[in-house]
Specification:
The chain has 7 helices and 7 strands. The chain is of the alpha/beta class and 289 residues long. The protein has a single domain, classed as Rossmann fold (3-Layer(aba) Sandwich). The protein has a 7-stranded parallel β-sheet, with helices on both faces. Strand 5, helix 5 and strand 6 (184-191) form a beta-alpha-beta unit. Helix 1 (23-34) crosses helix 7, helix 3 runs parallel beside helix 4 (110-138) and helix 4 packs parallel to helix 5 (159-179). The longest helix has 29 residues, at 110-138. The chain starts with 13 loop residues before the first strand and ends in a 34-residue tail after the last strand. 41% of the residues are buried. Bound molecules: NADP nicotinamide-adenine-dinucleotide phosphate (NAP) and D-gluconic acid. D-gluconic acid binds next to loops. D-gluconic acid binds at residues 100, 102, 148-150, 155, 158, 161, 191-193, 198-199, 202.
């Protein structure tokens, strides 16, 4: 007899996670594989693809990986065709690939702005457009976008990123609106502050070895007083990729330790001795600010 747990299974599904050599993408893909899916991933260069292939192999996951820039329509079309030839049409797309540039807006060049908007907002458009025809024909599909707290809130130096992630929230709602009639669900994961290479610069200790002010700030704004780890997001990713979420559409699900619900406390009042140690992914260079 089928039980509710069967609703969370991804057996026989083909999942494409963009930018998934490490970080959150690797966690999502690992979770999907554990739930039964076949894994396809791309990244921006061969070095990262090789790194990802090794990581999946180490986890016992058979994957298909290739270099593909999510902003390049021809490269994306070829990637989707190659995955279809190897595994079959894509059932689940996670628009995970993303970049951030932390620069005061008045100092940011148009080129830098365009780079962030191109990857973080145009990339999901290009990749979603590439997989939707098969999903429409098969009257089934899941698209999961990588939104962010910056889909709702701004902060200094991340104007392009916030604009892109805010736009991605509305793209999520529009794909839902336009294609929900074909049993296609498009939702978004809205992570809080997660310990990945993308945020490593925010945690770098000061010259005297003391905690980064931003690290202390984030802990004072998070009820759990810790950063998220990639493992924290795996369950939500499987849920949104599975039949268990077939009647959820157009939503951004925030998974942030409560940071968007909490006014925060005085950072100076935090007791560092109680802080949870962060498992840093040191396999990737710390991203420039
Ligand atoms: P990450 O560590 O920077 O990994 C992103 C991956 O995407 C990297 O492998 C990156 O390659 C790749 N990529 C960049 N541009 C690409 C392109 N044009 N085509 C294909 N791949 C490309 O990011 P993350 O922390 O794992 O986060 C993953 C997603 O979640 C991002 O969209 C991010 O904005 C979002 N997010 C992260 C957090 C967080 O706290 N970490 C919170 C909320 C939302 P490179 O290594 O060359 O950059
Ligand atoms: C930053 C961080 C954030 C996180 C995430 C929060 O510089 O503030 O990089 O943008 O990555 O998007 O949800």
């Amino acid at each position: 007899m089928e039980t509710i747990l069967d609703k969370f299974k991804l057996d026989g599904k083909v999942a494409w996670i963009t930018g998934a050599s490490y970080g959150l993408g690797l966690a999502y893909a690992t979770a999907f594989a554990q739930a039964g899916a076949k894994i396809a991933f791309n990244d921006i260069n061969q070095e990262l693809v090789d790194k990802g292939m090794a990581a999946y192999k180490e986890r016992g996951i058979e994957s298909y990986g290739a270099v593909c820039d999510v902003t390049d329509e021809a490269a994306v079309a070829k990637f989707v065709a190659d995955v279809k030839a190897k595994f079959g049409p894509i059932d689940i797309l996670v628009n995970n690939a993303g970049i951030i540039k932390r620069i005061p807006m008045v100092e940011m060049s148009k080129k830098q702005w365009d780079q962030v908007i191109n990857v973080d907002l145009c990339g999901p458009f290009v990749c979603s457009k590439a997989v939707l025809p098969d999903m429409i024909a098969r009257k089934s599909g899941k698209i999961i976008n990588a939104c962010s707290m910056m889909s709702e809130l701004g902060r200094e130096t991340v104007s392009a990123y916030a604009a892109a992630k805010g736009g991605l929230k509305m793209l999520t709602r529009n794909i839902c609106s336009e294609y929900g009639q074909y049993n296609i669900q498009c939702n978004a994961i809205g992570p809080g502050y997660i310990a990945t290479p993308q945020t490593a610069a925010l945690r770098e200790k000061q010259a005297d070895g003391s905690m980064a002010p931003f690290d202390r700030f984030i802990r004072s704004k998070t009820p759990a007083q810790r950063w998220g780890q990639t493992e924290d997001l795996m369950g939500l990713a499987v849920f949104l990729a599975s039949p268990a979420s077939d009647f959820i559409n157009g939503q951004v699900v925030y998974i942030d330790g409560g940071i968007t619900a909490y006014i925060g406390q005085d950072p100076s009042q935090l007791d560092e001795s109680k802080f949870t140690e962060i498992k840093e992914d040191t396999s990737v260079k710390v991203k420039a600010e």
